[in-house]
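Batch manifest, entry 17 of 40.
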Amino acid sequence: MSQQYGYYHSVETFGTVDGQGIRYVLFLAGCSLGCKFCHNPDTWVRGDKTISVDEVMADIKKYRRYYEASGGGLTLSGGEPLLQPEFAAELFKTCRDKEVHTTLDTAGNYPVESLHLVLPYTDAVLFSIKAVDTEKHRWLTGTDNARILANLKTLSAVMPVTIRYVVIPGVTNGLEDLDALAGLIKSLPGPAAVELLPYHTFGRKKWAHLGRTYLLEGVPDASLQDVAKVQAYLKERQIEVLYETKAG
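Output type: structure tokens
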């Protein structure tokens, strides 16, 4: 029996938006970014809640028939799951042994060695790109993205990637932003599709509850039209966009 433990924030047993099918989503605690638009800032701090690999697998067993029937499985999210690489690797390895599909939901800001620990047991990857331009990324997240982009290329050389990109009106949807995003995708060594996520302000209450000042005050939620315009731009450049948006 495994004795690996991870610090976690929460569990969703019937997730439908973090990978294929119905999924068990484990949100690990701790993040090395400080995104101005984060809707879960309560996941940034590690805290003291822990869960073992064995406990996760026992919980998955309760709902496994739903995951298998839908082509789902386990998604490891956060925070940033690869800030706890040993736990992530042991959990994914156990899932592989038990024939449970695994998806890694990551923002890429960690040493490449952490990525190499989990890749042998990873079936799919959701990779969040906040901004391609270094200065805009630093403004949005508090750090540059050199390591993130390097990890994305390392990952892309091994397996297909789904890139998650948040459409923030007036912030990440300008022509320069989209040119940079398209150029990045075209430069990758392997195939990549894009999942566009509309920016929303649902997380403001969490920021207030934590005593933090919400840093994108005044930026409106992304409309269907905002997302559709980005989608059209990418499709014109022969970039695959998942879950297409149709503006009214």
